Amino acid sequence: MMNIQVNYDDLIPNNVGLSDDPRLNRALESWHPGYIDWWKDMGPEGFQEALVYLRTAVSVDPKGWAKFDYVRMPEYRWGILLSPQVEDRTIPCGEHVGEPAWQEVPGEYRSLMRRLIVIQGDTEPASVEQQRHLGATAPSLYDMRNLFQVNVEEGRHLWAMVYLLQKYFGRDGREEAEELLKRRSGDEDKPRMLGAFNEATPDWLSFFMFTFFTDRDGKMQLEALAQSGFDPLSRTCRFMLTEEAHHMFVGESGVGRIIEQTCKAMVEAGVTDPYDVGRVRDLGVIDLPTIQKKANLHYSLTLDLFGSEISTNAANAFNAGIKGRFQETKIDDDHQLHNDTYSVLHHKDGEFVEVDEPALTALNARLRDDYMNDCAKGVGRWNKIIQKQGVDFELALPHMAFHRHVGHFNDLKVSPDGVVLSADDWSQKSAGWVPSSDDMDYITSLMKPEMEPATYSGWIAPPKTGIDNKPGEFEYVRLD
Ligand SMILES: [Fe+2]
Ligand SMILES: [Fe+2]
After folding, report:
1. Among 13-22, 299-308, 404-413, whose mean pLDDT is lowest?
2. Rounded to an integer, what is the distance from CA 380 to the centroid of its chain?
3. Cα 145–chain centre separation
4. Hey, which of 82, 99, 340, 370 has its CA 20 to 30 A from 384?
5. Which of 306, 372, 310 is nearest to 341 (CA)?
């Protein structure tokens, strides 16, 4: 039965009683070597032998679930952890609302559920692949450690999804688990399933933006799957969300520290115009307009991950009780939505208009709106850093139709403030809205590693506090 404590005697640490399920245990043990091969091929390049100060989940008790220690990444104990079962939990939404949550997959929803799990599972190794070259240019050992922590946990999230596939989906599940190790981010023949996960993450500003914006899409998807009527999926996602919080912290604080360093350098040098990009770059920091452009890019790519605003697939998953809304159980309605509407932005006859759509088919738009609100709060906290330094500049999220490739704005050209443009106008102006090759070259020129404890590259401020309350001089990664 389920324990709070994790069994570390088994080859695969777990709190799901793996040793009592020999068939599943065999399936996972035979998948394990392929996973390790994948990690060595596609995990952090050049640092597989380094000792990294990592947290490992040893419990699912919210008060103390992790322990920190030096680990070589290929020896990290990737485990299978589910949050505790909520007694008498019921299906929170859809046509089965109020019925007891399922402990097995209902046959009629098998393929729909498998697909959702595979799509979620595919994003986890993809981000590790995207980030594998970044160790070599880490701006500090602290940041390098945070990168590797995110990477091993994305690896564990893959384990989490593979556990569900192998335990509940038989031979199909085992085949999907193999395929998850075969696709590669950015590969022409076998790409990862979703667009943003095939983009490069070439530098540390990109990494921090990715963890802020794209890991936050992960958070929203996990929040929705944590509402699943399929209880093992719900419990798996609830524990993943515990880890995900750190990924979001890495992104938000990383961008925040870059902003802080830029503003401090500007104030010290007496540069008052944030758009005087040349003078700001002479100071060796990243100008705020370029940070805005990076945010525009990562935000718009991530909005595409929410899929079509109007979607019958989303309606089916909700109706079936497989995927809920963000914080479903806290919403005060009938949780079936047959007679409800939801306001969705469209572009009609040359202008943007809100249209009341059937709430059931508008669930992707709704989750995207919840995501946008969550992003806006983080951007507000970045702006506080700028204000505090007395610099006259404000970061903003671009219009939701800006730079989109999925959904009903995909054939429009829209400026960040929501003006629809001709293709010509767009090609002239867009260099000011997403990073140009000059911008990227400049960022790349700053990517010089700092591998001494307590030292930080000149373009990023040190963190306020250490990981696990360690002092500033702590050696987060031992490289010898
Ligand atoms: Fe993840
Ligand atoms: Fe993540």
Report:
1. 13-22
2. 20
3. 17
4. 370
5. 310
Whether the CB-CB separation of 36 and 74 falls below 8 Å is answered with yes
Round to whole Å and give the CA distance between 141 and 152. Answer: 16
Q: What are phi and psi of 110, to 5 degrees?
A: -55, -50
What domains, with CATH codes, occur in the chain?
18-478 (1.10.620.20)
pLDDT in tens, 424-445: 999 999 989 999 999 999 999 9
Distance 389 CA to ligand 1 centre (A): 34
Closest Cα to residue 60, out of 19, 9, 20, 3?
A: 3
Q: Please say whether the dihedral angle defined by the alpha carbons of residues 133, 138, 141 and 143, taken in this order, is positive or negative.
A: negative
Ligand 2 centroid distance, CA of 247 (Å): 5
Q: Which two tokens stand for residue 393?
A: 């500049």
Q: Find the 120 Cα to ligand 2 centroid distance in Å.
A: 11
With both helix axes pointing from N to C terminus, report the angle between 215-225 and 231-269 in degrees, rounded to the nearest 10.
Answer: 150
Residue type, 35: Y
3-class secondary structure, 15: coil
Q: How confident is the model at residue 63 (pLDDT cuts 50, 70, 90)?
A: confident
Query: Which residue is listed with tokens 């335990």?
Result: 167
End-to-end CA gap in the chain: 43
Q: Would you say how long the chain is, in residues? A: 480
Question: Please, are residues 139 and 457 in contact by the beta-carbon 8 Å criterion?
Answer: yes
Gap from CA of 14 to ligand 1 centroid (Å): 18
Q: Are 309 and 344 in contact (CB under 8 A)?
A: yes
Cα 336 to the center of its chain, rounded Å: 28
Report the alpha-carbon distance of residue 233 to residue 72 in Å, rounded: 30
The neighbouring-strand residues paired with 57 are 66
Q: How far apart are CA 74 and CA 86, in angstroms?
A: 34
Give the ligand at the shortest distance from the Cα of 125.
1
d(CA 179, CA 31): 11
Alpha-carbon distance of 457 to 462, in angstroms, equals 9
Ligand with the closest atom to the CA of 222? 1
Q: How confident is the model at residue 1 (pLDDT cuts 50, 70, 90)?
A: very low
Q: What pLDDT does residue 60 have?
A: 78
Q: How far is the CA of 118 from the centre of ligand 1 (A)?
A: 13
